Amino acid sequence: MDDYTDMRATQKLLGDRTIAALFTSATKADTARDALKSAGFKDVAITRSEEIEIGNAPGPIHKHSFWDGLTALFGSGEDAHLYGEGVRRGHNLVTVHVSDTRAAEAIAILDAQKPVNIDDHAQMWRSQGWTAEGASTEPSRRDPTAGNGRVRSYLQMIDPL
């Protein structure tokens, strides 16, 4: 049984998910957020590189809180590290919390805004020496049946039954 099937069998789903996409500019991220809000999505957030602490550079959000937030959304596996690296490199992360019934709509809206292909970027970053250091082997919360290389869907979970 794969991780996704095993996770669905052993955990109770909340019935909703987080959809995520990474954008190269603040303008593109703002446009994506505005499109989601125009479609009636209320729980939309943008994480920008200037809002986090990188190394010793202070920011309004502590680095610990930033990583805790990524782990809460994506689990502690590689995906949290991918998005963290994207934000560290100046990209803007747009997330929207949606019901299962509206997930495909949110994915289509974000995809229409042309976010980066996180898989392609991860490959490029690895060729430059980046590793997802500290990523756990915990099964991903990513739903492989929804989304694509640019927009990903993550199941929101509660404690195992």
β-strand amount:
25-35%
Cα Rg: 15 Å
CATH architecture: 2-Layer Sandwich
Q: Largest sheet at a glance?
A: 5 strands, antiparallel
Number of domains: 1
Report on the structure:
The structure is a single chain. This protein is of the alpha+beta class. It is 40% helix and 25% strand. The protein contains six helices and five strands. It has a five-stranded antiparallel beta sheet with strand order 2-3-1-5-4. Helix 3 (63-74) packs across helix 4 (78-88). The longest helix is centred in the first third of the chain and has 13 residues, at 26-38. The radius of gyration is 15 Å and the shape is globular. The model is unreliable at 1-14 and 53-64 (pLDDT under 50).
List keywords for this structure.
alpha+beta, single chain, 6 helices, Alpha-Beta Plaits, globular, 40% helix, 25% strand
How do the strands and helices of this protein lay out in sequence?
Elements: H1 3-10, E1 11-23, H2 26-38, E2 44-47, H3 63-74, H4 78-88, E3 92-99, H5 103-112, H6 118-127, E4 142-147, E5 151-160
Antiparallel strand pairs: 1-3, 1-5, 2-3, 4-5
